[in-house]
Each structure stands twice: as C-alpha cells, then as structure tokens.
Amino acid sequence: MLFACALLALLGLATSCSFIVPRSEWRALPSECSSRLGHPVRYVVISHTAGSFCNSPDSCEQQARNVQHYHKNELGWCDVAYNFLIGEDGHVYEGRGWNIKGDHTGPIWNPMSIGITFMGNFMDRVPAKRALRAALNLLECGVSRGFLRSNYEVKGHRDVQSTLSPGDQLYQVIQSWEHYRE
Amino acid sequence: MRKAGLWGLLCVFFVSEVKAAIVLEEERYDLVEGQTLTVKCPFNIMKYANSQKAWQRLPDGKEPLTLVVTQRPFTRPSEVHMGKFTLKHDPSEAMLQVQMTDLQVTDSGLYRCVIYHPPNDPVVLFHPVRLVVTKGSSDVFTPVIIPITRLTERPILITTKYSPSDTTTTRSLPKPTAVVSSPGLGVTIINGTDADSVSTSSVTISVICGLLSKSLVFIILFIVTKRTFG
C-alpha cells in the first residue's frame, strides 16, 4: 500500500518540464512579443517547418536560430512563430513558450492553441522516434503544470488550415496519438 | 480450453462496447441572465469546410431541435442571425462560432454544434454544451446596453457576400428581439470545469443495448459451433 502511494507520488513528480532547452541556451534573439496566452490551453497544433532537419544539439540549436531569424528578420514577426520546436536530436527547444501567443496557424487559432513544430520536412518520412517522444513528453509536462487542459486536443496543421503541414508521414503518426481529434 | 477462449471473447465484446459508447464530455457554461454565450466549435477543414453546420438544442428525451444553420455558399465566411442566435462561419480558419445573446433562465439546457448533413447522422463538434443560466442578483451588475436596436417582427437573416434567396429555413419570431451589445462585461463565457459530467444514462442505455445484441449474436454462434463440432 505504502509502496503504491510512493510510486504514484513519483509519477506525479516525473512530469516536470526541465528537459526543454531554454532560449538562452540556443542563443535566441530576444522576443518582442507581448500577447499572452490564457491557461489552460485547449488545443495543440502540430506542424513541420518544411525546412532543413537537424540531428545533433549543435545543428538543432543552429536550425532554431535560423527559423527565428527568418521569422523575425524576413517576415517581421515579434519572434519565432512557434511555442516549441522539436529537433530530431530528440530535444524540445523553447520558442515563445507556454505563456506567449504564437503566430503558427492563423488569427483564430493562435490565441487558443500551443503551436509545436518539428524541424524538418515530414512528407516522405517520419521524424526520429526520440523527436516524437520529446513532443509527447512536452505535452505531458504541459498538462501536469496546468498549461494544457487535461482533455486537450491535438490537431494537425492541415486539419485547421489549408496546408500540407505537418507532412503526410508525421500527420499519420499524430493521428494515432491519444489526444488527437480530427 | 475452448471455454476459456469463449469467455475471453465475451470480455472483448464488453470492452469494445463500453469504448464505442463513450460519448463526448459535456462542457458546462454558467452564466447570468442578460449575458452572452460564446462557443467556438472547430471542424476539420479538409472534411467539412464545405458542409452545412448547425447549432442545436437537445431537449430531454426528445429529438434535437435545430436552432440556426449556416447558409450557402458554405465556402465563404458568413454570419447568420436568427433572433438571439448568431453563427459565424469561417471556413478558411476551420471555426464555427456560436453566440446566444440576452440569455434567460429558460435558455438553460444542453446544446451542440454539428455538421448538418441529413440523412447522415450529424457530426458533433467541440463538446455538448451544458448551459446553466441563473438570475443575476440586482446588486451584482446590470448589463450596460449601448445601444439597443429594436428589430421588426420578421426574423433577420444576414449573410455577407450573399443575398439570401432561400428563406424557408427561417422561423418567425413571436416578439421583437433586441441586439444587446454589452462591451463592459468583457468575458462572456466561463470555461467549463475539467470535472465535467458524462451523461451516464445515455452511456448506460447504449452499453446495455449493444451488450444484448452482441450477446444474442454470441449465443447463436456458440450454439452453431457446438452443433457443428459437438
């Protein structure tokens, strides 16, 4: 009985978000965004960058900077569009995070969702298993910290906008996730 | 060993029945008379951008009542007003927004957004909405009405980019409705709590019905196999 209680307590502790690579670590430019997200968030939108992939911490940190540079300097946005970026090195990179509204989907969805992108193009291949694990861990820690509703729903980018994102293969994977709802 | 296998099958039937019968949790909205209910119902853009959507009321033990529907062409953003009901349809953003203004206690009940495509079963969007409207106490607040526009007896059907030629879906209203804009109230909905109730009676009924029919099939198969091999 005592053992069961201890085990349950450990499970509760296990879902912290400390595995996320913070902005300072991947040397992000400062954010100029100010619109906040209300918590808990009900929707998660999964996309892909359709750009280069990366499979090491060095190359993924560089890729995250590249994406941010494109969004800030080319597109003129206040920051990288996504709330989180997933690298095929198996790490989660902090974008706008849990508290700031992203620019990942559209004017209706951005204020009511967390946008998670996989760095790469996943039309013809699935992301590395560690990348998928990282995303699921991120979602689990989001729920345990109260950023996501416990009955949150995952949508593919193409479910809510006219786009190919997150790519045929990644889309097929997320459709098998427990919280996916078309 | 065959007996164990057969009991295993029975278990599978039971489990699959319960899974199939799990309905969407209700989302509860607690509001006060005079307030506005706003519900956002997303739909799948690939499957339903061009489908008709509706807001329905679900009276206890009766057929769903369709209150307001989106108007053709469904491919363009549109706004439909039907008395206190407003449907804002944005097919490019995959969102249907429902508003019910000037809520009364009698508006309390169960509602839902659906993809409306008879004779097919409607597809429920978002969650069933459990609306609970209570009388506001006089010292809490009164809605600031700026301004009130008195409408005529006839129902209003406003669609952007499209002049309505089909008026058969409108209902005539018995009294004038007022469009109340209450900007001072700010947030118009309170998000439902996480601990929402599942309508257990409907789950139980569908589980039992399914179980009975599956048990019947199981029994028949059992008898047939016994006869063949027994």
What does this structure look like?
The complex is a heterodimer of chains A (about 180) and B (about 230). Chain A is an alpha/beta fold and about 180 residues long. Chain A has one domain: Lysozyme-like (3-Layer(aba) Sandwich), CATH 3.40.80.10. Chain A is about 30% helix and about 15% strand. Chain A contains five helices and five strands; from the N terminus they run αβαβββαβαα. Chain A is globular and about 60 Å long. The mean pLDDT of chain A is about 95. Chain B has about 230 residues and is of the alpha+beta class. Chain B has a domain at about 25-135: Immunoglobulins (Immunoglobulin-like). Chain B contains three helices and eleven strands. In chain B, strands 1-9-8-3-4 form a five-stranded mixed beta sheet, with no helix packed on it. Chain B has a four-stranded antiparallel beta sheet with strand order 2-7-6-5, with no helix packed on it. In chain B, a hairpin with a 2-residue loop joins strand 5 (about 80) and strand 6. In chain B, helix 1 packs antiparallel against helix 3. The longest helix of chain B is centred in the last third of the chain and has 30 residues, at about 200-230. The radius of gyration of chain B is 23 Å and the shape is elongated. Chains A and B meet through strand 5 and helix 4 of A and helix 2 of B.
| Helical content class of chain A | 25-40%
Portion in strands of chain A:
15-25%
Give the H and E element order of chain B: HEEHEEEEEEEEEH
The CATH architecture of chain A would be 3-Layer(aba) Sandwich
Class inferred from helices and paired strands of chain A:
alpha/beta
Instruction: Could you tell me the CATH topology label of the domain at 24-137 in chain B.
Output: Immunoglobulin-like
CATH fold annotation of chain A: Lysozyme-like
CATH class of the domain at 24-137 in chain B: Mainly Beta
Could you tell me how far the N terminus lies from the C terminus of chain A, measured between alpha carbons in angstroms? Answer: 41 Å
Organism (chain A): Mus musculus
Disulfide bonds (chain A): 17-141, 33-78, 54-60
Subunit structure (chain A): Homodimer; disulfide-linked. Interacts with HSPA1A; this interaction forms a cytotoxic complex that is released by lymphokine-activated killer cells. Interacts with HSPBP1; this interaction blocks the cytotoxic activity of the PGLYRP1-HSPA1A complex.
Domain N-acetylmuramoyl-L-alanine amidase (chain A): 39-167
